[in-house]
Amino acid sequence: MQVLVTGGTGYIGSHTIVELINHGYDVVCVDDFSNSKPIVLDNLKKITGKDINFYELNVCDKEKLRKVFKENKIDAVIHFAGFKAVGESVAKPLMYYRNNLDSTITLLEVMNEFKVKKIVFSSSATVYGDPEILPIPETAKLHTTNPYGSTKLYIEEILKDVYISDNDYSIAILRYFNPIGAHPSGLLGEDPSDIPNNLMPYIVKVANHELPHLNVFGNDYDTKDGTGVRDYIHVIDLALGHISALEYIDKHKGIDYYNLGTGKGYSVLEMVSAFSDVNKVSVPYRITARRDGDIATCYADTKKAKEILHWEAKYDLNEMVESAYNFAKKNSDKNE
Ligand code: UFG
Fold first, then answer.
1. How far is the CA of 199 from the centre of ligand 1 (A)?
2. Please, which residues have CB within 8 angstroms of residue 143's CB and are 6 or more apart in sequence?
3. b vs e for 99-131, b when ≥16 Cβ sit within 10 Å of the residue's Cβ?
4. Is 24 helix (H, G, I), strand (E, B) or coil?
């Protein structure tokens, strides 16, 4: 089976390509390097021993995308490509709507033209907004609080309408919780070029003395220690969730939604102490004001993915924080 991976050199895309190859799939990767680097392709080869069949393109470019479908016999698509920074989406909403919706519609048009009707879509727990029920089931009310989240929700709606128009489609929508961690080789990981928005890459930079301290955004939430609680999942578990979803949609037509999380919630301070204890480094922090748009608590009800996809997260928190720091150390060595 040949799988097209859009956004394949990104953080989650690259880990998924490793697992696809490990599971015997042929991979075609496309990316425009808007938030990743070409070195990822070399590192994928080092890990898998395979040359990656790669096309540099933006998924909004229909002609270039058509060429990929003409030159390869694509059976299914995993669609990661998209902008993902919440704050930036608030400042530049049109850029987010244009890119994330246009790329998905273009991809779906080209898939339709080439009669490719299997797709796994990279959605997010952000579609649950401030959740009313914990752990959050897939049936929870959907609403979003920023343009990035809205693009995920609208794409879910587009996919639903595509399925309604043609019941031959097989569509899995995966709602990710908070992916962290890295490949054990230290060759793949999350590598933001700017000051990180997310907790784990920020902690890593503080531990590496690239930033002076972590700002903990509020300690007056209604949680165990007052700081925000999230469901952190190892990126390799997340990647394996895509393999399970692909196996499932290969045999079942329809559209369905799955949470990919661990079902466990950890607070910001628990993350800081796990990181310091496991990696034997200090992570100085200061409590600051709440960040706009943040919620207190978010963790997944994982039953559905377990029952239907036969998938569940296996890695624990120690493995997540250890691999995240291992990647950072290896990559800061290279930069010296
Ligand atoms: N946090 C800090 N300091 C920081 C960064 C984060 O205290 O410097 C806290 C946040 O307040 C929150 C927790 O750490 O309590 C996690 O924050 P992240 O920014 O790492 O993750 P979020 O849960 O806010 O958002 C992530 C993704 C979104 C996605 C969302 C879906 O960034 O893209 O999960 O659940 F939409």
1. 6
2. 127, 128, 129, 153
3. bbbebbbbbbebbeebebbbbbbbbbbbbbbeb
4. coil
Q: Is 11 a catalytic residue?
A: no
**Ligand 1 proximity of 198 Cβ (cutoff 6 Å):** yes
Per DSSP, the three-state class of 14 is helix
Pocket test of ligand 1: the residue of 83, 84, 230 to mutate, having most ligand atoms within 8 Å of its CB, is 230
216 in contact with ligand 1, CB cutoff 6 A? yes
Nearest CA to ligand 1 atom 1: 199
- Round to whole Å and give the CA distance between 160 and 139: 15
The two three-digit tokens of residue 39, written as one number = 């070195």
- Point out the catalytic residue in the list 148, 169, 232, 315: 148
Burial of 306 (0-12, 13-18, 19+ CB in 10 A): middle
CA–CA distance, 316 with 299 (Å, rounded to integer): 15
Residue 336's pLDDT is 43
- Of all residues in the chain, what percent carry a pLDDT higher than 90? 96
Q: What is the pTM of this model?
A: 0.97
DSSP codes joined into one string, 134-160: SSBPTTS----SSHHHHHHHHHHHHHH
CB 298 near ligand 1, within 6 Å = yes
| Ligand 1 centroid distance, CA of 313 (Å) | 20
For ligand 1, is residue 215 a contact (CB within 6 Å)?
yes
- Ligand 1 in contact with 291 (CB < 6 A)? yes
Strand partners, 173: 121, 257
For residue range 257-290, list pLDDT tens digits in order. 999 999 999 999 999 999 999 999 999 999 999 9
- Contact status, residue 175 vs residue 258, Cβ threshold 8 Å: yes
34/31 Cα distance (integer angstroms): 8
The atom of ligand 1 lying closest to the CA of 288 is: 7
